[in-house]
Chaperone protein DnaJ
Amino acid sequence: MSSKDWLEKDFYAVLGVDKAASADDIKKAYRKVARESHPDHNPGDAKAEERFKAASEAYNVLSDAGRRREYDEMRSLFGSGAFRRNARGGGQPGGVPFDVSDLFGGGAAGGGDRRFGGAGFQDLFSSIFSGGQGAGQAAPRGPARGRDVETEVALDFGDAVRGVTLPLTLRAPGVCDTCHGNGAKPGTQPRTCPVCHGAGVTTRNQGSFSFSEPCRNCQGVGTVVEEKCPECHGSGGVTKTRTMNVRFPAGVADGQRIRLAGRGEPGERGGPAGDLFVHVKVRPDELFGRTGDDLTLTVPVTFAEAVLGTDLRVPTLDGAVTLRVPPGTPSGRVLRARGKGVVRRDGEAGDLLVTLDVVVPARLSDEARTALEAFAEQSPPAAREHLDARVRRVS
């Protein structure tokens, strides 16, 4: 049975006895409820079966002196009967909307445990009922890892396809050059905290309970800086402008995020630095588009070129290629120039996909019109027999 069940369920109310009831009174009450709600005496009655199970669960806890004591202490600590289930399944301690599952990690994003003072709630209860030892013992904090930093960089289309190295200037916290991150005045060193002896936590007793909390003398770090650095005032970091060269690999895509390990904010008191995340925005190109590792290009052709065929000279990002347009090519056909796309990490490259767009002139000269009419008289008609048959049926 979980600690969550102990908070949510009033076992005394289930058996209909007072909290001060003796062991004999609890046994008599359980026998009465069990006899009245036993499934053998109430065949097909789901409610009676639930009452029988609840009574058995309550008696299992209250009949054991040690478990009953732990149950009473826990309910007393967090307010016996204070968790009233609402329509959403949450509780309301003190009249404030509250989901008791949040205490046990049920409401944490991504299914992870929510934390209470740096430890799970199960660990908290383990600490309470074991005198502060075992799983509930808080771990030393020590030097803290620096925060991650995010920035955004806009790349030209060609640079994103080929890859490029660019200088990136950031104004963000960095390691203090005077104390090199330990927060102490040059010539001195942080010393072990005399209160927590470097553990970063202290333990205090309150009645039969033992609680651990971050050391107030060193703020949970475990060390104390007696003579602080005049530059960073003991923090180990300062805000400064720094420039670094960032390599964007060939084929980096719009919206991609590049992680630079250890290039974020410095850690506290010599802790490891965070990471730098660079969000890439790729400026569109006036000619080329991109689909995965393939580049795309639309090329207009005349009606005569599409009918008679031709050789097209088209640009690529690193030169030009010649593509053969076969006679009788329809508008919208895609020609492929292999290996002229985005270079992948394995060294292979995508293709350049050229879409042909047959251009229909809006105006014709008299000579062109005469020639086109002569062509129309000699050319075969379009294959529309299936459409004409449908038109005749619906007319």
About this structure: Confidence is low (pLDDT under 50) at residues 80-140. The chain has three domains: 3-80, 149-190+225-282, 285-394. The radius of gyration is 38 Å.
